[in-house]
Task: inverse folding
């Protein structure tokens, strides 16, 4: 691979940021044997503690799920239960993937970019496992699964989201990044509609208890609101407090809209429940707290740097 092409590939993983700032210099020998891109290695082929730790953490819920399934601890309908768990893990993993860029900027942690592609591919893996477990729950009857996907709108939506994730997965290699050029970035913006479709899929199958999808909606709102901030505000306390308030209020609105449009429950009662902490904090409160904690991050970072300078 020529130096320029290699740098282009590096830049793709860096998502447009200054890749040179992230990596140590990489020496590329002509005729060098192509190395296997093990997920725990960095671009230079060195062991990366960051990548290895994130890999283990990201695979842990899947390993636990597989163990519970293999040891018969998933209840009367194990594949149905495992399908739900895998769907939940897939969605959370998607949000973690989207969180990489804000965390990199707010936490001034540019190295974090090296885990983004890996997390995206793991998200796809969980989503495929989710589909596979659904097929297993339907006793392997693929024709029945296909007809269900066509007949049930929430499954159709999930299917479209999965196709989107597949498109992102197959175009995530260095070769595809080079081949698609500028189109690659444009294509990868579909991650936002995919996250929204996944959320609709999540809400529609949840029916009355929408605590978890509402929480996911609020966290997604935070991520989207953060993206709309001007660059110079993205790590500023003021900008982040504004994002936290928008996301918290947006979560209340999402919850209100769901109960108003999809149920016979009085939406105002549900919204007012946000003020009552008797049964634990509601999603809007959690989103607000998480957002405010993120707003405090630049301050913590600066204080630690000052302490370090004094020591
Ligand atoms: C062909 C594609 C898909 C199919 C056939 C499918 C199927 C299902 C089914 C059958 C359920 C459980 C419904 C129930 O038990 O009542 C479910 C739930 C769920 N799915 Fe999917 N899904 C697909 C794609 C996706 C994708 C791409 C995501 C995430 C990015 C996702 C996330 C979820 C979540 C979060 C749940 C709820 C889990 C819970 O209740 O805790 N699904 N899906």
Result:
């Amino acid at each position: 691979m020529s130096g320029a092409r290699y740098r282009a590939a590096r830049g793709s993983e860096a998502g447009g940021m200054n890749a040179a700032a992230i990596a140590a210099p990489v020496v590329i020998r002509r005729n060098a044997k192509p190395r296997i891109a093990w997920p725990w290695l960095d671009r230079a082929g060195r062991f990366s503690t960051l990548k290895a730790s994130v890999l283990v953490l990201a695979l842990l819920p899947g390993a636990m799920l597989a163990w519970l399934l293999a040891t018969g601890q998933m209840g009367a309908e194990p594949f149905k239960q495992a399908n739900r768990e895998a769907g939940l893990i897939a969605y959370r993993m998607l949000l973690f993937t989207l969180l990489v860029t804000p965390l990199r900027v707010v936490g001034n942690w540019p190295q974090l970019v090296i885990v983004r592609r890996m997390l995206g591919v793991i998200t796809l893996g969980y989503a495929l496992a989710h589909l596979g477990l659904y097929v297993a729950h339907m006793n392997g009857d693929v024709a029945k699964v296909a007809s269900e996907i066509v007949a049930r709108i929430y499954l159709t939506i999930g299917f479209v989201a999965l196709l989107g994730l597949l498109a992102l997965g197959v175009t995530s290699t260095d070769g595809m990044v080079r081949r698609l050029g500028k189109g690659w970035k444009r294509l990868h913006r579909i991650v936002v509609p995919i996250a929204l479709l996944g959320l609709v899929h999540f809400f529609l199958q949840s029916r009355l208890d929408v605590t978890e999808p509402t929480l996911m909606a609020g966290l997604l709102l935070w991520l989207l609101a953060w993206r709309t901030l001007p660059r110079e505000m993205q790590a500023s306390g003021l900008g982040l407090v504004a994002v936290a308030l928008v996301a918290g209020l947006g979560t209340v609105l999402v919850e209100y809209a769901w109960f108003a449009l999809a149920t016979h429950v009085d939406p105002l009662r549900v919204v007012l429940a946000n003020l009552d902490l008797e049964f634990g904090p509601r999603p809007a409160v959690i989103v607000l707290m998480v957002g405010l904690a993120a707003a405090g991050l630049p301050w913590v970072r600066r204080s630690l740097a000052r302490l370090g300078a004094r020591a």
